[in-house]
Amino acid sequence: MFHRNKRVQWSSNQKEPPWKMPKKCAERMKEEICPVFKNTIVYLTGGFRTVGAVVDAVQRNTTQVIGLGRPITAEPDLPKKILNGVFPSAVKNEFNQNEMEKTIMASCSQIEQMGRKSVKTAGGSLMDQISDFTDGGLVAKYDKAVVEFMIELKKDLFSCFKFTSFRGIFFCDGLALYEMAASRTEHGKTS
After folding, report:
1. Per the record, which residues fall in region Disordered (predicted)?
2. Count of Cβ atoms closer than 10 Å to residue 139 Cβ
3. pTM metric for this prediction
4. Number of structural domains found in the chain
5. Which of 74, 59, 190 is nearest to 133 (CA)?
6. 29, part of any domain
7. In a domain, 100, yes or no
8. Each residue's pLDDT tens digit in the chain (191 positions)?
9. Of 56, 75, 91, 177, which has the fewest Cβ atoms less than 10 A away?
10. Residue 111 vs residues 64, 76, 78, 126, 141: alpha-carbon distances, Å
11. CB neighbour list of residue 84: distance below 8 Å, 6 or more residues apart
12. Is 138 within a domain?
């Protein structure tokens, strides 16, 4: 008989992971949701930034696997640092954490930067060429460059999709919204 492990990924996409919810919600999750996954390997992602939250989730048997996603694009060796007790938490970048699309784009940029050289070619440095978004000045430059890129992308895409693709119009409208949000941020009108 062939046995396959069942797996489920649960992404909270919250600043506070689900086990940090008010006690009533956490109890409900443990009583009603967790038993459904008793024969399943649960992967939890989203919201993990501290060693305490990771340890708590594993000790409560809420999960068997932790996904660190965006934090490890800033620190590729973060899991090793956590396991060795070197770091109590992930570094905090200077992006507005309510603007998830920006943090995702920044993480994608860091992944691209990691791929430019091997660790050997970089002299053993995992951080070689990876942008340090804990620097507010660099974040401001990055935001400006992203807005300029999006404006150009919108021009290119809108000329291609204007009359041929309904989906393209929605995509370009999304870029326009991003552009407007960036403009409000530049003028001190954050929402």
Report:
1. 1-21
2. 19
3. 0.67
4. 1
5. 74
6. yes
7. no
8. 344 667 777 776 554 444 455 556 556 666 777 777 777 887 888 777 888 888 887 887 777 888 888 889 999 988 888 888 888 888 889 998 778 888 889 999 999 999 998 889 988 888 888 999 999 999 999 999 988 888 888 777 766 655 444 444 444 545 555 555 555 555 554 44
9. 177
10. 26, 10, 14, 12, 18
11. none
12. no
- CA 163 to chain CA centroid, Å, is 34
Match 């941020």 to its residue by tokens. 185
48's tokens: 């993990």
Domain of residue 32: give its range.
1-67
Which two tokens mark 27? 């109890």
3 state SS for the chain: CCCCCEEEEEECCCCCCHHHCCHHHHHHHHHHHHHHHCCEEEEEECCCCEHHHHHHHHHCCCCCEEECCHHHHHCCCHHHHHHCCCCCECCCCCCCCCCHHHHHHHHHHHHHHHCCCCCCCCCCCCCCCCCCCCCHHHHHHHHHHHHHHHHHHHHHHHHHHCCCCHHHHHHHHHHHHHHHHHHHHHCCCCC
Phi, psi (rounded to 5 degrees) for 44: -105, 130
